[in-house]
Amino acid sequence: MTIHDIRQKYFDFMESKGHKIIPSSPLVLEGDATTLFTSSGMQPMMPYLLGQKHPLGTRLVDSQKCFRSQDIDEVGDNRHTTFFEMLGNWSLGDYFKKEQLGFFFAFLTDKKLGLGLDPHRLYVSVFAGGSGVEKDDDAVMIWKNLFAKVGIQAKEGQQIFPYPAKKNWWSRAGTPEQMPTGEPGGPDSEVFFDFGVERKLHENSQWKNEPCHINCDCGRYVEIGNNVFMQYVKQADGTLKELPQKNIDFGGGLTRLEAAMRNDPDMFNISSLAPVIKEVEKISAHSYSVEEHRPSMRVIADHLTAASFLIKDGVFPSNKGQGYVLRRLLRRAAIKLYFLTDNRDSIVMLPDIVRVITEFYDDLYFNPGDFPLIQNTITVEISRFSHSLDRGLKELQKNPQVDGKFAFDLYQNYGFPLEVTAEILSQMGKQVDIQQFQKEFEKHKELSRTASAGMFRGGLADHSDVVTAYHTATHLLHAALRQILGTHIQQKGSNITSERLRFDFSHPEKLSEVQIKVVQNLINQKISERLTVTKEELPKEKALTQGALAFFGQKYPDQVTVYTIGDRKNFFSKELCGGPHVESLAELAKINIVKQESLGAGTRRLYLQFV
Ligand code: SER
C-alpha cells in the first residue's frame, strides 16, 4: 500500500461514517498571521472549531499538507521529516470521544475496511489530569472496551498510559498554562505503534536496562495518531471554559501509517520518499544501504520534498520569513550533497530530483507546469549559493582559530550547518568548540522563539477587526488590479499583519506610478461607495460560472463559500474564500499602496495599508 492507497482508504472509511472530504489548505495560510506555515491539520480549521459553520457540515475529513520548520535540525534519523501529510477527521460539535476512538481503532485494525494492523502492537496514552481538568477516565474505559473486543485485556500501565498536560494536552500554544486567551484546546489521546517487537531499537534508549516506554524517543514506539478532544477555550482570568460545541480534532501521520504497515520504521523507505532517495543515490553515486551516508541522503530527500511543496504554495527563497526557511532547506540540501560527493559541481543536479516528487504527487498536489517552475526556482537559488559556498569554505581555510562564534557566523551568513563546519574542520585537523556554538545557537533560538511567540500572540488578532478588514482589502486589490491591468493577473499569495497587507501577483512588468495611483483610486472609490459584502454557499461549478475567482492552483471542495463585493450580478469582486470578511465596505478606512517589489519571474508584490 502506498500513501495514496492509505489516504484513499481513510477517506472511504470516514465517508462511510458520514464525513465529507475537504481538500488540503496551502502550506502558507492566507490571512493567518499566527504562524509562518501550516504545521497541523487544525490550523486551517480554527474558525470552524470556534463555532463558525462549515458549508459541508459537521463531519469532515482531509489530508493536510504540513511543514514543521522547527524540525529542520532533527532530519537525518529514520523518522523525522519537515514535510508530511496529516490525516484529519473533524467533528464540529457532532460526535465525541467514544465514536472517535472507535473510528480510529477500527481504521487501524479492521482487516477489510481499515489497515489490518495487529492490535497487540498498539499502545495508547490518555490525559492524567491537571489545570482544573480531571483525569480522562472516560478515554481509559473506552480504550479498555475497544481492546477487549479484539481479545486484549488492556490495563493502565500495560497498554494504556496516563500522562500530564505536557504530553497529553493539545492546543496550538501547548499546555493550558501556555494558551493565550481565546485559544481552544483540550486533552488528547495518542496512539503508538511498536516497531520493536522483532527489532532491538531500544538499544539506543536511555531506558535500555528497563522496559522502554511509549514516550521514549529511541524510535521503538512511534506515534501514529492523536485524538484531540477539543472542548475548552482559555479565559482572560486564566481558567478554562467549555466551548459551546465539543469538537474532535484527529491528526494521523500518513507516512508513519505506511511505515507501520511495512513494519519498517524507516520513513525514507515509504512510497513517497523511496523514489527520491533513489535519485539521490543516482546523482551521488552512493548507496543508501551504507549506514554512514544515510543521514545526508535523508536530509536531501526531505528538504527537496518540502521545498517543492513550499514553492508550489507560493514561497520564494529570500532572507525573511517563509522565504528564509526555504533558503535554509535548499542550502542544507546542497551542502549535504557537496560533501556526500566531494564534488562542488554535483549540486547543480539537485533541481532534477524534483521531477520524481512532482510525479509522485501528480494530479493531487501538482499541475504539469509546476515542475519547470520549481526546478527553475531551485536552480537560481543553488547557483547563487554556490558562490557563498566557495566564500564560506575560504573563510574556513584562512581562519586558523575557529571558535564557536565563528562557526555560528558561518551558519548564519553562509548557511553552513554546525555538523558540516565540524566535518570540514576535522578534515583540516581542527576542532570546533561545540559548546560555544550551542550557546550562540540557543541565544538565536531564544530570539526566534520569542519572535514567533510574539507572532502567535499578535496573531490571535487574526480574527480581529483589522485583520478581517485587510482580508477584504485583499479581494479589492485583486479585483482592481485585474480591472486596470488585465485579467492575466493572478494572485500568487498574500500575507496579512495588523499593520499591512502584502499581495503577490503575476504581472510581467513594473507598475508605473500612474498605474498604482489608478488602482488605489479605484479601491478608494469602491470603499466610498460603501458596497455591501455578501457571503453565500454555492456548488463550486455554479460559483465559477458566475465568474467567481478561485485561488490559482488550489483545490476546492464541491460546495464552496463565495464572497461578493457589490451587486450580486454586477459585482466588483467575487471570490471563493473561507473568510472572514467585513459586511460592508463602510467598515473600511481608505487605503494607500505604499510599496512595490519585484519577485522576479513575472511576479510582483504590493504592500497596502489603511490610512
Ligand atoms: N492537532 C493535533 C495535532 O496536530 C491533532 O490533529 O497533533
TrEMBL record:
Protein origin, superkingdom: Bacteria
CDD domains the UniProt entry points to: AlaRS_core
GO biological process: alanyl-tRNA aminoacylation
E.C. code: 6.1.1.7
Alphabetical list of SUPFAM superfamilies matching this protein: Class II aaRS and biotin synthetases, Putative anticodon-binding domain of alanyl-tRNA synthetase (AlaRS), ThrRS/AlaRS common domain
PROSITE patterns xref list: AA_TRNA_LIGASE_II_ALA (PS50860)
Record's GO cellular component terms: cytosol
UniProt keyword list: Aminoacyl-tRNA synthetase, ATP-binding, Ligase, Nucleotide-binding, Protein biosynthesis, RNA-binding, tRNA-binding
SMART domains: tRNA_SAD (SM00863)
GO molecular function: alanine-tRNA ligase activity; aminoacyl-tRNA deacylase activity; ATP binding; tRNA binding
Alanyl-transfer RNA synthetases family profile domain mapped to chain residues: 1-606
NCBIfam families, A to Z: PRK01584.1
Family under the similarity heading: Belongs to the class-II aminoacyl-tRNA synthetase family.
Listed name of the protein: alanine--tRNA ligase
Source organism (scientific name): Candidatus Collierbacteria bacterium GW2011_GWC2_44_18
Organism classification: Bacteria, Candidatus Collieribacteriota
